[in-house]
Each structure stands twice: as structure tokens, then as C-alpha cells.
Amino acid sequence: MNPNFENSEAAIADEVFIQWINPFVLSNNQAELNLQIQHLDISQQQIIREAFDILSMLQKKEDPIDPSLVNFQLSRLNFMLQNQGRMMAKRPSSKTTLFWSAAAAVIFFALISAGIWLTSFKKQQIETYYSERSEKKLPDGSLIILNSNSRINYDNMINAKKEREVWLKGEAFFNVAKKQGHKKFLVHLNDVDVEVTGTKFNAVSRGEYSSVMLQEGRVVLHPKIGHEIVMYPGDYYEFHEDKIIKKKINEDVALAWLDKKIVFENTTIEDAVNIIRDHYGVDFQFEKDDIKSKTLTGIMPNDNLEELIAAIDATGQIKISFLKEGVYLISYPNSMN
Questions:
Q1: Residue 70 — pLDDT band, cuts 50, 70, 90?
Q2: pTM over 0.90
Q3: Planar angle of CA 235, 237, 242, nearest 5 degrees
């Protein structure tokens, strides 16, 4: 697929794109989606990820969609599909493929049309691109610092609701304002919901991985699997699909990104590469597979890719070379060949 969309709305309005992205949305497989689009330019990757998030949010949307809006859109779409029947019949497609394509188009277009109409009045989004950071004070007084390649969605009326809710994709630090009556503040991640009243914590929600590190106060975690977990300052939990792991972690390590630094502590090269990929949107190739298991230790600058690469090279563990636009080659230093 070689898309050239102006924005996520244009992508969602494209029937071929909906058919292509449908399996990723239904399986909630953003990791595989990222692999499929990593060869595209950065702007198209961002548009596709945003479309994925919109479709995923509509699929499991908590707020009910006005049935009259859905019925109206379904009527329009049925009429459009009927008129396009001749064109679709000419395509070399099996009956099964044709059925699911039509069904996917009807379901997604109807929900999208109604959902976007509603959310345009209710939802706000803050987004950072690769190598960017952003700070946002919400209407309720809570401060959110977004790491690179991240986004949050929240309700325009967040301060007037019984429960304050935020949806996170990526990484963010939260300094949640306390409200009278201990009004809850909920942060929705991929595999867990974080419930707080007033506290400071770091949260990550990327692909099939989520984590929460509590700096101050008290939070309650509501994972998709298992029982609720009460966290206290210094606690750190990771969530990997069907696994929940509690780890000891240095707070300075987890929050180093706030100071535009990155800390590696016996981190495998493969894990380090994944972190860099999330921050800068570049890809890496390995000259030899055994390099992936080598480890890296050090505190390094994390506000410029070239400076970060130079710092990693300076450790003498590996050598990172420019291969082509957006792609780097990792090899052993010449002395180790």
C-alpha cells in the first residue's frame, strides 16, 4: 500500500484503506501495523496511526452513539454500495471477500460518520511527533507532559464530569490536580486503567505494552486481567497482554526523559533500539543477529538523534552507521570484527 492522504479523515473515507486496516483494528495489533508502515514517510505514518486510534476508539467506544445518526448513515451507505455494485462485481474477488469488504465498509463508515460528528464536539487531542515534547494544563488544573510520538484524548467538559477521563497512546507524566469530593481521574491505557484523585505518575501505552510508575500519592490499577492493584510511591508495574510484572526501578531512570535524557542499565541492544525507534521514528538493521543480545549502559542525551547515536558509539560496544534515509546499520566496532 502506498498512501498519500492529507489527513486521517481522508484516510478513513477511503474504502480501500478501511479494508486494509480493518484486520489491525479488529485484532488491536498496532505493533504489526507499525511494522507494515515503517517504510512510509513520517507524515503518512502519523496519519495512519491516528486513523487506527480513531477506529479503535469507535470500536470500543464507551459513550453510546445516537442510533438515528447511525441509521441515517447506514441508509446513505447502502444506497452508495448498491450503486457501486457493478464496479465491485467486476473486481476479481471471491464471494467471501466481497461480503466482508461490503460489511466492513458499511459498519465502519456508519460508525465513523456518527462517531466523528459526536466527538468533534466532545473530544480534544494533544499530539507530539517524533523527537517532540509537549506540556498541557487541562481545564481541571492537571498537568500532563507528553513524550515524543504520543497523544492524549480528553473530554472538553472534563472538569464538569463525575469522573475525569484521559486516553493515552505513547508516554506521559501526569501531575493530577486534587478536586473536592475526591473526584476520580482515570487514565486509559491499552491493558490497564489508572484511577487516581491527586498524584504524580508516569504512564506508557505503546502497542501491546503498558507500564505505570508512581512518584507521589496513591493510585489504583484496574487491569484487563486479574484483580485491582493498589500502588504506592516507588511502585512500578508492566503489562504485557496476559502478564502483569512488578519490578524495582530507579525513579531517575524512568523519568530521565523529562530532563531530555535516556538511561540504559544493562539494556539489550534490541530493547534500546526499540526505545529509539519509538522516540525518533527511524529503523535499524543488524549486521549480525548476536548483536541484539549485547547490553548497553550509560546516561545519554535524548533530544537529538545524531548526538544520541554518537554517545552510543562512544561506549565502544557497537557502531551505528547511516544506511539510508530513516535507516541505520548496527555492527560491531572494527576492532571487534
A1: very low
A2: no
A3: 160
